[in-house]
């Protein structure tokens, strides 16, 4: 018992931790540090309604690659089964897309179960040298906006030299190193955009003061999305606060079981923003938003931050959610485009935000909105899942690209940089053409009366 208490810090020890400790506290699949909750596991009535919405079950038809199967494996682990290589494989294959949470009629909190399970896997399961090296490389670059920005120069040179086209046409990279091929195909087109200032004043009457997350991938590879977000917020009467050096929100870390790292990022972000006097904290990346809204749970064991984290989380809004709450004041000019809207999983499934972005798009005169078939199935991006599981991610990407192109829309709109990169790569593979834009860029083009040409070729 002493070991369990020591690792948990000063917070109360929950019943599952006690049970895991009594079960050997380390002999079974899980130790006493935030084991997955047996109460949540027992909520599953094995009905199977979640199966057909799970992308890995759709791909492979294997019970253990379904939500129900994974919950069964967690139950086995809680009963004392050791954490086997095969168990870890099935947990690793989960995209964390939360489609099963939407589909489940019993309200099973699979999101909590897999998050706690992943943290156990990362601490307790010895990974292969290749896997360790790949994960170390990913997590020493992706959550650091400055390091990501340093990649822009070499990426630009790689493109300009014609090397990328040559390698991609040869198909050699796919055969030799699918992970590298995936990274190569995902890299977005780079544009030079000046960094946003620290504070942008509301246009007209001020209705709110909002802090804004610039993000890691968003700020390094999609700075024009951040610029559009700032302009929309100002046009809708918001003072926008954008402190530099805000760092990562920790989403990537927490979704991959790196809880301690996620906690560090969360503390830093709270320190950066909590004394700015903001009414809201706005986020334009779905994956970041869903994690930020859970800061209260993430830092619940930290007496210095628990209350502050919960207060911070209560202010978090996705951009579409905030604009819907505020109601529009800026004039929308016509934008004669046909748009297919893709629900990013961490916006639709994890945050339940589906109606607001559609309402924003429908509020633009002359814009026609089309729905994508199989909308609930993930595009295969899922943070860094597509880098860790390149072949399966390409299959899901191809499936999504086909559904997107079937709509006949001229622009694909979504609210997550990962989805934009993933679908863009898949559309390119199929030889299709469709412009890609974040919801913010579409609204911005309408508010500034830029016309449909502003979205073409993105
Ligand atoms: S989170 Fe997604 S991939 Fe994982 S079990 Fe649920 S539906 Fe399947
Ligand atoms: S997770 Fe929900 S939908 Fe899936 S089998 Fe269990 S109770 Fe049924």
TrEMBL record:
Q: Which UniProt keywords apply?
A: 4Fe-4S, Electron transport, Iron, Iron-sulfur, Metal-binding, Repeat, Transport
**Reaction equation(s) it catalyzes:** (R)-lactate + A = pyruvate + AH2; glycolate + A = glyoxylate + AH2
Residues folding into a coiled coil are: none
What name is this protein filed under? Glycolate oxidase iron-sulfur subunit
Q: What is its EC number?
A: 1.1.99.14
Q: What does this protein do?
A: Component of a complex that catalyzes the oxidation of glycolate to glyoxylate.
The protein's gene is named glcF
This protein's cofactor list reads:
[4Fe-4S] cluster
């Amino acid at each position: 018992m002493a070991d369990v208490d020591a690792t948990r810090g000063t917070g109360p020890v929950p019943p599952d931790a006690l049970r895991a400790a009594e079960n050997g506290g380390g002999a079974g699949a899980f130790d006493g540090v935030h084991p997955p909750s047996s109460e949540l596991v027992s909520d599953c009535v094995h009905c199977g309604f979640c199966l057909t919405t799970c992308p890995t079950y759709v791909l492979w038809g294997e019970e253990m690659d379904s939500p129900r199967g994974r919950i069964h494996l967690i139950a086995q682990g809680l009963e004392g089964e050791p954490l086997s290589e095969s168990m870890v494989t099935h947990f690793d294959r989960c995209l964390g897309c939360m489609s099963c949470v939407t589909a489940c009629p019993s309200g099973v909190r699979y999101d909590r179960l897999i998050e706690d399970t992943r943290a156990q896997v990362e601490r307790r399961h010895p990974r292969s040298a290749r896997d360790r090296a790949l994960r170390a490389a990913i997590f020493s670059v992706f959550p650091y906006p400055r390091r990501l920005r340093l990649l822009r120069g070499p990426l630009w040179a790689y493109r300009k030299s014609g090397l990328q086209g040559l390698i991609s046409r040869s198909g050699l990279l796919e055969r030799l190193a699918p992970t590298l091929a995936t990274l190569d195909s995902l890299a977005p087109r780079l544009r030079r955009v000046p960094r946003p200032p620290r504070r942008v004043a509301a246009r007209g009457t001020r209705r709110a003061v909002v802090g804004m997350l610039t993000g890691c991938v968003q700020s390094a590879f999609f700075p024009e999305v951040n610029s559009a977000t700032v302009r929309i917020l100002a046009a809708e009467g918001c003072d926008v606060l954008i402190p530099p050096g805000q760092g990562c929100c920790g989403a990537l870390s927490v979704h991959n079981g790196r809880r301690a790292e996620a906690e560090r990022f969360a503390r830093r972000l709270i320190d950066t923003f909590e004394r700015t006097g903001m009414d809201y904290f706005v986020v334009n990346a779905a994956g970041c938003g869903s994690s930020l809204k859970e800061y209260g749970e993430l830092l619940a064991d930290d007496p210095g931050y628990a209350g502050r984290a919960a207060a911070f989380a209560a202010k978090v809004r996705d951009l579409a959610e905030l604009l819907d709450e505020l109601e529009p004041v800026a004039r929308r000019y016509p934008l004669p485009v046909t748009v297919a809207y893709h629900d990013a999983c961490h916006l639709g499934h994890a945050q339940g935000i589906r109606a607001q972005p559609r309402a924003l798009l429908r509020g633009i005169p002359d814009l026609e909105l089309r729905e994508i078939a199989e909308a609930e199935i993930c595009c295969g991006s899922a943070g860094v899942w597509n880098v860790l599981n390149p072949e399966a991610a390409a299959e899901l990407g191809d499936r999504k690209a086909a559904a997107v192109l079937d709509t006949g829309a001229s622009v694909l709109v979504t609210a997550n940089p990962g989805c934009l990169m993933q679908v863009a790569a898949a559309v390119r593979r199929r030889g299709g053409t469709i412009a890609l834009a974040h919801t913010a860029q579409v609204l911005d083009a309408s508010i500034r009366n830029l016309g449909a040409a502003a979205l073409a070729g993105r």
